Here is the input.
Amino acid sequence: MIRRIVKLLLLCLLSWALQAQNAGLTGAWLQRGIKWVSPPAELQLNQRSAEAAVLFFGAKNEFTMVYANVVRGPNSEGLSQGDGRVVYLGTWRADGVRWVVEYRIVSRTVSKAGETLPGPLERASVQLRNGSLLFEKMRFQRDRQLDNELRAIYDGETARLAAH
Here is the structure.
């Protein structure tokens, strides 16, 4: 009986540790080391923009990757609505000390000749080191300002795909 209780407690602790680790992954992550560009001074815009990859890990194992222009102002940040973007959707799961994502391209603003969407399934691993996320030879930092927008992109693309 005591062994069963100890096993149950250990299982609960392991489950809690994995949930805590996964909670550290969820949300939007902005690519690090990107080149921010300011608009011409005569436009008098207090913002900068950069081409970047943005990742989103949903609490229910949803995964989104978007390549787009990110616009950063003094009090806001979001994806440019007037520029092109590439969207990938998929899922993620814990796999020991790393996570595995499976995803495929689902939309592209400017189509590529011969490309069929949705594209083939891809797989990659993700690691969290010193507060940075490592994915596909890129580093990412947590960016809460993009959470809602990336969640909306996931939901919108999922609904669009389901309608077809």
